[in-house]
Amino acid sequence: MDHEIRVLTDAQEIGRSLEGFLTPVEHEGFRTPVESDGFRTPVDDPSRPGGPAPTTGAYRQALRPQAARAYGTAYDPATPQSTQTPERLGGPATSFTSWMVVPGGRKVPQAAVTDVGVLPTPTRRGLVSALVRHQLEQCLARGEILAALRADEATIYERWGFGIASQVASVEISVDRARFRAGVPQGGDVRPVDLRQRADQDLLARIYTGANWVGAVDRPGYWWRAQAHMRHLSTEQHYAVVHGIPGHEDGFAIYRPQDAATWFRSTDRGIVVNDFVTTTSRAHFGLLRHLLAIENVQRVVLDPMPVDHSIEKLLTDERALTTRGGRDETWLRLVDVQAALTARSYRAPGAVTLEVRDEVLRENNGRYIVSAAGPARTEQPPDITLDVSQLACAYLGGTAFWQLAQAGRIAVHRDAGLAAADHLFGLRRAPFSGTAF
């Protein structure tokens, strides 16, 4: 199929492209389109936490400089030829500039990829591949050394160099059985805020600027506005509390009732906390105590949470808590391998030579010797040969090299090199983002 890849700058074209993205998604039942303020805005299925960001006007405006869209010559057979325009939308691929915290604490420029899809008629003609390749080349030109996405399907993105770099879990706590152990800190003051008020939305955004855990990503202003718009369209009531005295807040939780329609007759009331952000341990303890003390609530579900959250260790009865997961969260792509390897830190001592293969961005092909001093190009024989997608799995420390080796996903030429790689790239805590886009 003949097609053209180009960047859209016109608001109406961007609107058309996003409507095109929604077409196959609507057919799959993931979202329902809603007319709002002149824009078609997706409303996520409540059973599917997070999901792609909504297409509000502010969101579109922010995406314009980086919204790579594809137009093709494919026609919909169901539409009479006479009604079709010479240039018909094939599908969009969108990204916005963000950052990600990598091991060592640096906030590295990344592209947050979203709204990738083609219409049902031009599928299997190379259009998505062309879109993603073009998008990654744009990222490289802008100096975004990483790209990340949340995948609706698990078998698509590895072919373009993406790998699962972090996972999340769902944590359910039985309130009646949950008692904190003696010695668990009390935490500080917790107070409610109004999610409908711009000042309180801005407060949450200010708290989030302290996000410093590996895997955390930027939440730009339009991300917050998009979330507010989604809540406005939702039929469910959302609540929020913040931790800390005014001017020194260090955490917040956003939650909603579970099965709100049967809430008043239910004997098993639950709340779902879908955004739990703490930048200090004091806030972590204070917010957990507050959530477990809400009257007439029998269950508290925190989703998403890190797979190694260890909340059960705070309780006298660890069986009061059930962890389900993990499931994939961050799909990561190393756009510039050398720059990405340079950006993160490594544990001393040791060194490993990696031979990286990248069929999409061939500049990344080559051998890299990695140590606590950083990476360097080399010609010496490799200890490990791997695709860039497998390197992405291990980059944040969420997957060990030995796991990839055991699954036959990497080639190990020297066992000592495998052990060195696991030591160098290993982390004390599992990576976690907690942000959908």
Mean pLDDT: 84
Proportion of helical residues? 10-25%
Gross morphology: globular
Rounded radius of gyration (Å): 23 Å
- H/I helix tally: 10
Low-confidence stretches: 25-67, 69-86
* Lateral arrangement of strands in the main beta sheet: 1-4-5-6-7-16-8
Q: Report the portion of residues in β strands.
A: 25-35%
Topology:
Blueprint: E1 3-7, H1 11-28, E2 31-36, E3 39-44, H2 57-63, E4 67-72, E5 88-101, E6 107-114, H3 127-142, E7 146-149, E8 163-164, E9 167-174, E10 190-193, H4 198-208, H5 221-233, E11 239-243, E12 251-258, E13 270-278, H6 281-292, E14 299-306, E15 321-328, E16 331-334, H7 337-343, E17 351-357, E18 366-371, E19 374-378, E20 384-387, H8 388-395, H9 401-406, E21 411-412, H10 415-425
Parallel strand pairs: 6-7, 13-14, 17-20
Antiparallel strand pairs: 1-4, 2-3, 4-5, 5-6, 7-16, 8-16, 9-14, 9-15, 10-11, 11-12, 12-13, 17-18, 18-19, 20-21
Give a description of the structure:
The relative contact order is 0.14. This protein has a seven-stranded mixed beta sheet with strand order 1-4-5-6-7-16-8. It is globular and about 65 Å long. The chain has three domains: 3-150, Gcn5-related N-acetyltransferase (GNAT) (Aminopeptidase, 3-Layer(aba) Sandwich), CATH 3.40.630; 168-195 and 238-326, Aminopeptidase (3-Layer(aba) Sandwich); 340-425, Nonspecific Lipid-transfer Protein, Chain A. The protein is built from ten helices and 21 strands. Residues 25-67 and 69-86 have low confidence and may be disordered. With 437 residues, the chain is α+β, with helices and mostly antiparallel strands.
